[in-house]
Design goal:
132 residues, alpha+beta, 55% helix, 20% strand
Length: 132
């Protein structure tokens, strides 16, 4: 198995970037932290006073672009699952929920659905009205 040159430990807004060294004399896998990549603002911050090479920067930028694509796909998948959950919730409320169950969740569900509906209607209207 060939090891990658870099390892990205995912964090909240990016990753801690390590350079992989498997060719040392002790034949141990060494992971040297070289940078922090922030996907929120696009910044790459070298660690430990290191100078990053152009190859380092290119690999980190490529990972950041791939990570953004993965997160965007996951977000859409989460939204589609939410639609499924809303449908399952409607079925539950209609067929299986008891009065105490409904009492426990109705107000929260109605407020969340009202908020979502308001946002969706506004955004739909914005898309339908031509911009100057």
């Amino acid at each position: 198995m060939e090891l990658p040159e870099y390892f990205f430990r995912v964090r909240e807004n990016g990753a801690l970037v390590f350079r992989i060294d498997a060719g040392n004399r002790h034949r141990r896998l060494e992971m040297e932290p070289i940078a922090v990549a922030n996907t929120s603002n696009g910044k790459i911050k070298p660690q430990g006073g290191r100078e990053l090479t152009e190859a380092d920067h290119a690999a980190i930028r490529a990972w950041m672009a791939e990570r953004e694509a993965v997160l965007a796909a996951r977000q859409l998948d989460d939204i589609r699952r939410t639609i499924d959950h809303l449908n399952l919730t409607a079925q539950w409320a209609q067929s299986r929920a008891g009065d105490s169950d409904l009492e426990a969740v109705t107000d929260d569900l109605l407020m969340a659905m009202h908020d979502l509906r308001t946002v969706l209607v506004r955004r739909k209207a914005e898309r339908l009205v031509p911009k100057d």
